[in-house]
Each structure stands twice: as C-alpha cells, then as structure tokens.
Amino acid sequence: MTTVISVPPSLDEQSFEVIFEQLATVPIGQKILVDARHARWASPYGLTSLLCVAQSRPDRMAFAVPEHPDTLSYWSRTGFFRYAGELFELHGTVPRAREAHESDVLLEITPIVQSDDVHGVVGRIQQKAADILHGQLGLDTAITGAFGMTLSESCQNIVEHAGQGGWVAVQTYKYLRRLGRRVVVIAVCDAGVGFKRSLESAPGHRRSDRWDDAMALEDAVLRAVSRFRHGDKGRGQGLAGIRRFVGRWHGKLSVRSGTARLAISPGWDEDVPMTESLPYFPGSQMQITIPERIGDPTPRPGAAVASRTRTRERSS
Length: 316
What we know:
8-stranded mixed beta sheet; 9 helices
C-alpha cells in the first residue's frame, strides 16, 4: 500500500506543516507518494524542504510533479527538478533543465555539503544581490556585505551542525499577503541532526528538566549557545549575527528544528514567537525574509525580539 501525502496549493514555512503532519504518521518502510499535482506556488523554504523530505526516509519516495505549466516552469528555473530527480521517483512530465537567469531567482537551489560550497554560493550571488537589494528593494548599500555574511553564516550552519548536506535558495518576489511589497527570502534547510542533538554534543553539556527542541532553539538563536568551546573564536556565533542582521533591516527569522519552531518577527508580521509539540522532523529549516524599504520607517521598539511566550500545537 502507498500513502499519499498531499502538497497544498501554496507552500511556505507555515503551510509546509501540513506535509510534516502527514509524514509523521507514516511508518518507516511504508511506500510514499508526495502529490504536488495541484501545487501552484512555493517559496524557497517550500522547495528546499521538499528535498529534505526525500532525504528524511531511507526508502525512495515517489513524487507527482505539478500539473500547471507555469508552476512547472518556475520550479524548473529554481533548479528543483535537477535534485528532485536524484532523490525522488518522479511521476509526470518535467521540463528540460535550463539556467535560472530570471530576476526573481537570486540563487537557484544549491546543495551545501562542505565549506567550499558555502564560499561558492556567496561568490555567485554577490553582484546580483547588490543590484537587487539596493537597486530594486531600496535598501542601503551597506546591506550588501551584511547580506553576504548572513548567507554564508546560514549555510555554514549546515556544514557544522547538520551531520549531512542541506540546501539553500534565495528568491525575491512581491509579498502580497501582509506587506504588499517586495521581499528577498533566504531558505536554508537540512534533514540532519537538528539543534537539540547538536548542542547535546557540546563538551560539558548538562540537560535541564525542560531540555527539549524549543529550549535548544532558544539557546542557539536567542542566547548564542554553541556546541563549540568558548575558546574556539568565531565558532557558533552565526545565528546571533543573523538575528542582528534581521533586526536591523526590519526582517523576519523563522527556524524550525525537531518539534519546535521559533520566529523573530517585525511589526508587519504576526507569527507566534514559539510553537511547540509540532510533528517531529529531523534537522533544521530556516527562512530569512528582508522587506523592500519604503520611506524611512522607524523601527518599533522590541519588534524583532522573540518573546518567551509559547503556543502549543499538536497534530491531529
């Protein structure tokens, strides 16, 4: 028997939970068909997380590709099928691969396995990112260097913490749902060991009574706790730097790991700061969203600081 996992029409960091919920109930060894025939749109997070789904099980899954030609074309431009064909058993007609040259794809989906991959990603995107961030999104020229560093730190987390390879993608599009303006989005996802197991490997790590995925996310993102020794200069500070970058440019940071998701949100977003008791999924899945600048907005005090208030959600 084959279990069908339905992909929602619009796929982002929140709607992807529907896929995680369905996957969590399927026993290991059960045949799975990921049905994306009715998908119409996917964020970089959605596409990279789909590849992580394929990596999360030992058995090869089947994948029914989108039926709408525009969706097929766009997913092809992002490079999704280049890697999906290696990980899934594809069902349906896939467009011939072509280069991602359109302006809405800053960086097509790219595998990250080692540090050399990180350097290559930053080098490839640097000039194009500068043109879009400053020329099209109206952001200060100072953001360009910080953007490259943030992208590098995000990818380096995969190399140092995932225990296996992961994926990065960068895209710009108009965010109609909340902002009504353009954003640039970085997604960095893997199906590796996750933050909890990574921090547990730190020398002298002591578990508290409430040690769980949520606390591990708080330690890593809010308190810059690392599995590296304090004397190992420059290690483990990537997420702290990413958080500062996101706060400075009125952006949003969302990180999911294990059974929890932490969101650091600006005034334009109403995401819950911490969500627990989610369906378990290995590794970590991160999205950074930086909005187009309009005028000279004054940041709302505390807008980019995550509260410790938690919302518990359980899969039905």
